[in-house]
From TrEMBL:
Keywords: Coiled coil, Dioxygenase, Endoplasmic reticulum, Glycoprotein, Iron, Metal-binding, Oxidoreductase, Repeat, Signal, TPR repeat. Residues 495-609 form the Fe2OG dioxygenase domain. It comes from Molorchus minor. This is procollagen-proline 3-dioxygenase. The lineage of its organism: Eukaryota, Metazoa, Ecdysozoa, Arthropoda, Hexapoda. It holds the Pfam family TPR_leprecan. It comes from the Eukaryota. Residues 209-236 form a coiled coil.
Length: 646
């Protein structure tokens, strides 16, 4: 059991105590936990040389233990995945448990091969947490200071602050260190930083200096190191779990799986820290730097690959879409240049998808591109739909090509769709992770049809929710076609479930807009003109919003004749099952009033007459439901059927 001793916080003005400089001999067979305890003891007894020795050795041994543990888990995971199954038929999930047993035996063997590391380690979660939270550095910086090693003292304090940025005492100590002779704040380092951190920083610095080859070398290495560190972080999560009781077999597995999954979800956030500075887009930003550096070095194929990789994360990013269009017009660029850079995989609610899973997804897309014309809509049994009726037309809405309809969804269906958002919506989805893309007074969360599809595909969400999502938005499409008498095929181009929530500290008398006045297929300028050219979504022809609730204050949809909302033509109050439909051009400038309290949820849908911009996720979603496809089936059966795809 780890002895956790209260740290006697001492400000540095009181640290000029007599120091016992006599060092003790370290027992090399001691594990990191024992060494940690001896380091604390030495600190409390003012034996600062011993304090440094014990903590340095404890950190060294924990690092070796952690690296080897991660290595064993990853090696055994890959070996088990590549092994041939003993039985050709998967009965009662036998294939899963066979892999689990193989992986377990492999880990036991791996640990037996390194007795010097594992035999003397009894690392319980409490002890592991001390090292993961960088607690040794809370003592170490003071011990370094007392032994006159002021530069290491400053770096140790900084290392601790990266993990505990709000610790006032350590902040004060670091500030004091910065005034000492021999301390150069530009050379302070984070002792626990992963390789990708420094590589990324050097790459970003090279970008500022326009040293394009250095940008490429550093960012490529940083990218590789990041992906490896992310794998190791996830492997670290697969440790023991004290359930606190004795559940049955299946609940026991489910509880431990959920525990590990929650830990793995935090890896993206953990790795997004550059020495304490949080970056939501750290991984995709590598590709942003790389695409420009490749272009400057005249490597157009790699530039296009980097653009395609970045767009996997943020498919609506106007800057990168504009870059893609620019590159595609260059005479030497071919269509096959826009293939994703090797090793990249897209975002998913549970973190970043595994590379293998994304390959399966891509292959299924390729299959659909061949059979797309043969797909038929599903006739799935749903609860009876009340009569849809038009409640407002151009006359009431004071404009042209716009209408409001009611009864497109029942209260039960609205609640079901909102439930998807509550469980899986992502902050800033569709806006590069910016949690408040339109106003700082609100939180913006969203989930695309593609994400819902992934959740069903990986069995994190029941397929009935995807079925409902498709059915309701299809009803929206039919209503738009009927009202506007559209004779051509009207294609979905994008579908987005969005919730806007008032922040707890936002004033109730707000006059700002939740979403500024805009048009959906042209860029609205201050002088009132609307330019229908990239990066605007010029292919959009019709727009619609299906509302899901009314238990909030504010949030009215408005049509305006100007860009400032000084001349509001009409307003639509959201409620479950109500939709507003309109043409996407400058004739229908619109926005959303401030959400003053609660959360406003709606499904926004955009349509196009151009089949080139049809949403492929929808075709894949119908295919998944119709064939009852999931991850395990793709892995064991369908992949072989797709092997002859392009």
């Amino acid at each position: 059991m780890v002895k956790i001793t209260c740290v006697h916080y001492i400000t540095l003005v009181c640290l000029f105590l007599s120091t016992n400089i006599q060092g003790s001999q370290i027992n090399e067979t001691d594990n990191c936990v024992n060494l940690y305890e001896q380091g604390v003891e030495a600190y409390l007894e003012n034996r600062y040389v011993d304090c440094v020795s014990y903590f340095e050795k404890a950190l060294e041994k924990y690092g070796i233990y952690k690296k080897k543990l991660q290595s064993c888990r990853l090696k055994c995971k890959y070996d088990a995945e590549l092994s041939e199954p003993l039985y050709p038929v998967d009965i009662e999930n036998l294939a899963f448990y066979e892999k689990a047993v193989k992986q377990t035996l492999c880990i036991i063997k791996c640990q037996d091969e390194h007795p010097e590391i594992f035999d003397n380690f009894h690392m319980n979660p409490e002890a592991q947490q001390l090292f993961e939270e960088k607690k040794p550095y809370e003592y170490l910086h003071i011990c370094y200071y007392q032994t006159k090693d002021v530069m290491r003292a400053a770096s140790s304090a900084f290392t601790y602050l990266v993990e505990h940025p709000d610790d006032k005492i350590t902040q004060s100590n670091l500030k004091y260190y910065s005034t000492l002779e021999g301390v150069n704040m530009k050379e302070i380092e984070n002792f626990e930083a992963s390789d990708y951190v420094y590589l990324y920083v050097h790459g970003a610095d090279a970008y500022e200096r326009k040293e394009w080859q250095n940008v490429i070398e550093n960012m490529e290495e940083s990218l590789s190191a990041y992906l490896q560190t992310e794998e190791e972080c996830r492997a670290q999560c697969e440790g023991p779990f004290d359930q606190g009781w004795y559940p049955d077999f299946i609940p026991s597995i489910s509880n431990h799986f959920t525990f590990c999954l929650k830990c793995k979800q935090k890896c993206k956030e953990k790795l997004g820290s550059l020495n304490g500075e949080k970056h939501d887009d750290l991984l995709p930003s590598h590709y942003h730097y790389l695409q420009y550096a490749y272009f400057k070095m005249k490597d157009l194929q790699k530039a296009c690959q980097a653009v395609a990789s970045y767009l996997l994360f943020y498919p609506d990013d106007v800057t990168m879409l504009s870059n893609m269009k620019f590159y595609s017009r260059l005479p030497k660029v071919r269509d096959n240049f826009f293939r994703t850079k090797r090793g990249c995989y897209p975002l998913c609610p549970e973190g970043y998808l595994r590379k293998k899973d994304f390959k399966i997804y891509k292959r299924s897309i390729q299959k659909l591109q061949v059979t797309r014309g043969k797909l038929k809509e599903l006739s799935i049994l749903q609860e009876p739909m009340p009569n849809i009726h038009i409640t407002m037309t151009e006359r009431e809405l004071q404009g042209s090509q716009r209408f409001v309809a009611d009864n497109l969804a029942s209260p039960k269906e609205c609640r079901s769709v909102i439930e998807i958002a509550k469980l899986f919506a992502i902050l800033g989805d569709g806006y590069e992770g910016k949690k408040s893309p339109h106003t700082i007074m609100e939180k913006f969360e969203g989930i695309t049809l593609g994400r819902v599809l992934f959740l069903v595909y990986f069995r994190l969400l029941n397929s009935k929710y995807l079925d409902l999502y498709l059915k309701l938005t299809e009803e929206v499409r039919k209503t738009v076609m009927r009202y506007f008498k559209v004779k051509e095929e009207l294609y979905f181009t994008y579908t987005h479930l969005v919730c806007r929530s008032a922040l707890s500290d936002s004033p109730k008398n707000r006059t700002d807009l939740s979403h500024e006045i805009h048009a959906d297929n042209c860029k609205l300028l201050k002088n009132g003109t609307c330019n229908k050219e990239p990066p605007s979504y010029t292919w959009r022809d019709y727009s619609a919003i299906l509302y899901l609730n009314n238990d909030f204050d504010g949030g009215e949809f408005i049509f305006s004749s100007d860009s400032t909302a000084k001349h509001v033509e009409s307003a639509v109050t959201p409620k479950c099952g109500r939709m507003v439909g309109f043409t996407s051009g400058k004739e229908n400038l619109h926005g959303v009033k401030a959400v003053k309290e609660g959360a406003r949820c709606a499904v926004a849908v955009w349509f196009t007459l151009d089949p080139k911009y049809a949403d492929e996720d929808r075709a894949l979603a119908y295919y998944v439901i119709e064939n009852d496809i999931n991850y395990h089936q793709f892995s064991s059966v369908n992949v072989s059927n797709l092997k002859n795809g392009p």
